[in-house]
Amino acid sequence: MPFLTNLQEKNVVDKLTDDESALKKIFNRKKLTYHTKSVAVESYDEYSKKGWEVFSESPGGLRINMRKPKKHSIQFEDDMWCMFYNLGYRHLNIDEFLHLPHGKEPKNTKQIDVVAICPTNKIVFLTECKSSAKTNKKSFKDEIELLVSMKNGYTKSIHQIFGQEYKVKLIFATNNYRMEASDDDYKRLESADIFYINNNGFDYIKNIIKHYKHAAPYQFLGIVFRGQKIRDEPILIPALKGKMGGMEYYMFSIEPAFLLQIGFVLHRVKANEVDYPTYQRMLVPNRLKNIAAYLNEPDVKNFFPNSVIINFNVTKRVKIGFEAGHPARAMPRTKSKFGILKIPMAYAIANIIDGQHRIYGYSATELAETDTIPVVAFKEMKTDAQLKMFMDINQNQKAVSADLKLALKVDLDWSSKRVDSRMGALKAAIVTSLGDSSSSILKDRISIGEDKADLKFKPFYTALGRSLMIPIATATRFDREKSNSSLYDIANQDESNAMYESLKKIKDLINSCYEFVAEYFSDIYNQDSTENLIISNRGTYAFIMIIGSLNDFLTEKGDVSLETSNKERFSSMEKYLIALCEGINSLNAEIKKNLLKQLGQAAESMWFFTFQNIIHNRFDDYETNELKEWLQTKNKEIQERAKDLVFKIERHVKTVTISGLQSLYGDEWEIECGKVYLECMERMNQEKVGDHKNGIHDREYTWTDYFQILDYKKIIKQNWGKKPAEEADDYETFQQNFSVDLGEGVRTQTLSLAWIEKFNSYRKITAHEGTKEVGLNLKEVDLLEDICKQLTS
Fold first, then answer.
1. Per residue in 484-530, pLDDT tens?
2. How far apart (Å, rounded) are the C-alpha atoms in residues 755 and 757?
3. 684: phi then psi, degrees, rounded to nearest 5
4. What is the pTM of this model?
5. Going from the N-terminus, what domains does the chain have, and what CATH number goes with each?
């Protein structure tokens, strides 16, 4: 006896369509973020009161086109419908009024938000959507249990309408609801084999649609049905079995169409966190398109000679089989075996370690069914080993982004024998936790792996490494003297425990500081990133450094220690953070403008020291040695003294060098300068040409005015110990005139002339307009004075 009556079946079928023209119209309507309506002009007031607004007028002026933002729940249902449409599904529900029977009684029906049918793979997706206007946490126990109770009835209805061969897949999709893998609801869905899509998963699927296009459906099915069989019959293929590095592998040639169905890419995104460690970057759409064009190029037999590398994921239900044949007679001693490889036709059984562009490039070409491509396949390789292989293959390729490389450190180095590598993994783990954890205010605001966001990974990572919150380490040990204020227990012999404890301490402290800014200085927190001095990439570095600096300062004072709770530590910092934020709000417009124009390493130090100085102006006991030195670089008297010393040293060096050359070589001293003379003449002639272009013709030029300080060094070294042919009692050699002791003596020429390089770097700072934001500190100016005294005494 049929499960559905003819009327029930008709009611369902009438709410579905595979008419592409009708689906296109529905898609164009659903992809909009607002409802539209054409109304008579005289109805404007009526609709306006209900939140509708005019966006255009119809021809003739008698009607107007109005729109109204969709309610978030309707928008989410439309977004899910559009997701299936963009994945290529062309048999979908036409509206939200499809009710699917799940029992014999007339009342045993339930509205289904999205229905998508895939005739190729014989699948029907039934999607239940739940949305919240704001981020929220709620239990869906009743909804999930109800869905589970209806599952069998839904399946019977679908089988009657579409056939017994169709598989029914329930999807539970949420928008702005937090559900962790440890939550009971998550476990309920997993136990009932109901696929769950949250915000991360939805964004990821949109991303693969954007990047993969024709190949996106394969990755989507791999996500949803991972490990489940596509069909019972396995792929039987000739293969060689070998062993390398302690791992078994197989070499074979196969049609890309098979790899498209069974392959899976472990993208480094939050949606795949259950599979961590993951490692792959997203495909480059243009590269995918170019590969398809390359393969389809007319009258050209293009191919890829190098092997795709995959790993077979083996489970209790899905196993790889190999039946060895007769060994090759020509190679009786080989340990390789020839035979038949049995590959189950199952979703996501093969992780693609290298070659995803090649495989998915075939998705847009008919050659996927006829070409065969070489494959090297490993079996049961752990994901951290896959990660290492991926990095070994790709470490010199620009395609692996800096953010992805840093994020992968967590999995590569967390248990490393090298102490410094473990600390690198700890830094990466802290950044990842700040960007991933549902308890973090920065969740989804940091670029992690392939998840892109406003704030980059690197500024967090770099600042953490310099903040003193993480101990300074070499390959074999910690530097205890430089790690007094670190929030890592160096004495803890349980390395794993020490790592996790430190991760929690530092993450919680940083999160508390950002939460404080968001709650009490929302004008700063919510400011546009181009003007924001804290929630921006340059601001990230400075703010994390300030947190570390305050922790170090308070540790030195004895106010906090490693054992101090996060609440107490933050409480000790709070007044300094208030001073910082209030100082930022009242910052001089010219100073702020100057900060915002700084880029690169110059911005890092300038923003950090500016932040430190803001706090120092309120609390004068907060003054680090680095801040003192930075303030000295802004002191006009110190900078003027530096310029005077540079001028005096340079004039002295020029006078003594030319005088010494004249004493050594007489009238031929210019010729003896050799290459230096030619280079100075070239500089002089270039300037002369420029002057003439600008109408300057009455200037006198002397080639010795074009000496550079490193030119003097060349001449001094060439004539180091030379004396005139006719000895003079008052002649002093270049060695006597230019040896300067910087504290390591003058026993060699290299040590004696080390001052020149240092002087040259100081001279550039004082002379160039482009470095006016960088000055010399008092210690550096005192060194200039010492150099001057030794040269002129």
1. 889 999 988 888 899 899 999 999 999 999 999 998 998 888 888 77
2. 6
3. -65, -45
4. 0.56
5. 6-33+70-197 (3.40.1350.10), 228-394 (no CATH), 402-630 (no CATH), 636-792 (no CATH)
